Amino acid sequence: MNWKPAKKRITGLQTIRVAHPLTHEGGTLSYASPLLFSWKDLVLSLVRTTTLQSAVPNLSQEERIWLAHSNAACHAERINLFVSPRNAEFSVTTKVDILPDEDLTSLAAKMGVAVADLVMERLGFHWRANVLEIELSPSVGDPDSKKRRPDFVYDPAGKYGFQPKSVVVAEAKGSLSRVRAKRAAIRTLSRKAFAEQVQHVIGQPARDVIVAGGYGIAFGAIPGDHAPGAVGEQVSTLAVASPESIAVVAAKAKTKVNSLSAAATYGPRQVQKIQVQQVPQRQQQQEELRRQLEQRRHGPRGPGGPGGPTDGGPRREREQRTASGRIAYANYESAFLLCGADIAAGFLRNILDGRGVADIGPDRSIQEFWVVNHSSGPFWTSSSRGVPWWPWWGREPLLFGIHETSAKEILRSVANNLERVPDTVNLTVAPIEVGSEPDADLDIAIQGDGLALFSDPRLRPERRYWDLRKGELL
User: Fold this and answer.
1) Residue 256 domain-assigned?
2) Do both 397 and 446 map to the same domain?
3) 153-208 pLDDT, tens per residue?
């Protein structure tokens, strides 16, 4: 990896509020502006969304992991080639001009999906799945609805006023065009994504969950080395369209961005230490009215509670969340695949598909793990792959792992629900505060569900064997 500084930023953040009635009336969500992320953050979102997209009927575990290897590695290598390594803004160079139109479109789409996943993660939606997992019913009188569904579903896990088993969907778009990546065009693309692939899904019947809301997220980058703001345009821009009652706000801290402040840290910030960035006066007045109403309903700290997303306090790592069982199982099935824990992934897939594990023999009921100790805590990976999972970039072998607490919680749930998916699962948010300093030389990226991508620690890991039926170490 050749990024200098180690973290890139997207400063051109835009929000679009759509008049769409919801049964859920949650508070406004906020993520820090600029959006900061490392190379490993981007690759982690890229690889896991690629793996989720392969969660379709008739694909075996081996075929899915092959797709994750080939597709994600290919796109990650190309992103590394075409992203400007020295520009602090996340931007692409004119090298992308060598790509044929279809390849450029594919690369733009992958970048859009990865950035959208980063946005959803920053908003606190830590558990995700392929939208096919929830088996949405077609809209009445809409024969083409299956073609226009979003790719991913995210679980707020009982936070921000959402009830347990309520989920949101997200559709991501991307453009690397000199015309279609401009700010106005990206706003239009975001609104179109919401209108065509999100709006009609909200409120639809779904398996085990309720679709309570959704987002249309569009990312654009204009090729070239021009500075941000040149000719009235940003190097890169991001737009998020959402219903008014669960709107997203791009906000910045009053303190310096390069400090360990609300703008530099990983999670959503709101109300006390942030101010809305580039919002017209009328919209600011509407925001103030909305905040006053929220305070009347929930008190001065808002629905997030003390230290939560609405009071500008520190992010609440290690807090308990109640996630939908279906989303949680699908989330960790793909995570275990990435870590090489094929047997654990197979248990989860059998339960998700309604087959149960009665036909799985004893030899396929014990999962071998390696425990890698890191400053962020112990992580579990699998020894089924004797070398790091990922190709070498700049002599840096990369490895996937799951935070030990997250791994134990989901595996104990599996042992207690061998024949069916539970309604909900209690999970702990992983310690994702690592690397909040924007110029830090990061060796790990962690997301809230515990999945991590880190440099080969070159330490001697400890071997563990987990009995999937009993839910305990041997």
Assistant:
1) yes
2) yes
3) 999 998 887 888 899 999 999 999 999 999 999 999 999 999 999 999 988 889 99
Same domain, 396 and 262: no
Q: Is 76 exposed, middle or buried (0-12, 13-18, 19+ CB in 10 A)?
A: buried
Interatomic CA distance for residues 206 and 200, integer angstroms: 13
109: phi > 0 → left, psi -120 to 50 → alpha, else beta; which? alpha
Does residue 180 contact residue 220 with C-beta atoms inside 8 Å?
yes
Asked if residues 412 and 19 have their Cβ atoms less than 8 Å apart, the reply is no
Residue 310 lies in a domain: no
Look up the domain containing 184 and give its range. Answer: 7-298
Query: Can you give the C-alpha Rg of the chain in angstroms?
Result: 21
Distance CA 53, CA 49 (A): 6
Q: Is the peptide bond before 34 cis (omega within 30 degrees of 0)?
A: yes
3-state secondary structure of 462: strand
Q: Are residues 165 and 79 in the same domain?
A: yes
Pairing of strands 377-381, 366-374: antiparallel
Q: Give the pTM.
A: 0.84
